[in-house]
């Protein structure tokens, strides 16, 4: 009987040590995962410092420099997102000026590009990028350009969603009916203005059939618009988005044909 009790005690001790060891491994794995997650770059910790030089070495335009940091430390590595490391959207306060450019990465979290602003005044800057250890993010800022100001243009809603640009006719349709807070599709239909024939030879632009940017009238809302996957080369280009609230919005559709990018603007009223 005593031998059985001793044997039982030994087996119990071995099992206890085994369970403790297993528990320790699980705890270690959880700790490793926690450390890995803590190394991820999150949007709230990322800041962009904007610097403008009105007298760049080239003698023209304005030098725009972005310093991107995470917890006050430069972010060194970025992933290619839609074929570029960083997309910079520049829009004037009255929404009359729009530019979509791709600054050059200089290292140490710094991007640079020259831009010729049409006039002085306030401009909305949006930088879209993806740190290698983080998710895609957008950082916005109002900047002021020191030049002679121009008279602000009125943001007028288009009565007809049909525009002609560089010999191309573009019609915008929305499905279902425009309504705030609802997922909608924006369909651009492109035809040759001279022959009225459908344009079916669009070229990929930034890895998709096109690119669409949307701002609210006050420049405070910047909407993410996603192209529907597996589209052809025209004449239709379909995108998905949601307008967060009622109001006036300006839409810029960008497409590429024969190696040239053209931009089509529309202004809509969302009920």
UniProtKB/TrEMBL annotation:
This is YtkA-like domain-containing protein. It comes from Peribacillus asahii.
């Amino acid at each position: 009987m005593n031998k059985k009790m001793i044997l039982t005690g030994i087996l119990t001790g071995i099992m206890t040590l085994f369970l403790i060891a297993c528990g320790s491994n699980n705890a270690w794995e959880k700790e490793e995962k926690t450390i890995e997650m803590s190394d991820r770059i999150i949007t709230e910790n990322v800041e962009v410092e904007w610097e403008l030089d009105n007298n760049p070495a080239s003698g023209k335009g304005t030098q725009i420099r972005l310093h991107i940091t995470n917890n006050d430390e430069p972010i060194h590595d970025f992933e290619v997102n839609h074929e570029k490391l960083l997309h910079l959207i520049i829009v004037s306060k009255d929404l009359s000026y729009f530019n979509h450019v791709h600054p050059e990465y200089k290292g140490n979290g710094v991007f640079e590009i020259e831009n010729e602003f049409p006039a002085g005044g306030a401009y909305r800057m949006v930088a879209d990028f993806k740190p290698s250890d983080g998710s895609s993010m957008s950082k916005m800022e109002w900047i002021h350009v020191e030049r002679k100001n121009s008279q602000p243009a009125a943001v007028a809603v288009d009565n007809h969603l049909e525009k002609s640009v560089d010999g191309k006719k573009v019609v915008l349709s929305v499905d279902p009916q425009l309504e705030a807070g609802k997922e909608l599709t924006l369909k651009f239909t492109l035809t040759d203005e001279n022959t009225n024939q459908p344009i079916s030879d669009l070229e990929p632009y930034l890895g998709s059939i096109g690119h669409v940017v949307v701002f609210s009238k006050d420049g405070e809302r910047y909407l993410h618009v996603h192209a529907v996957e597996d589209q052809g080369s025209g004449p239709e280009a379909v995108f998905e988005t949601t307008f967060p609230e009622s109001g006036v919005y300006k839409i810029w559709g960008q497409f590429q044909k024969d190696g040239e990018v053209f931009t089509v603007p529309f202004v809509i009223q969302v009920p």
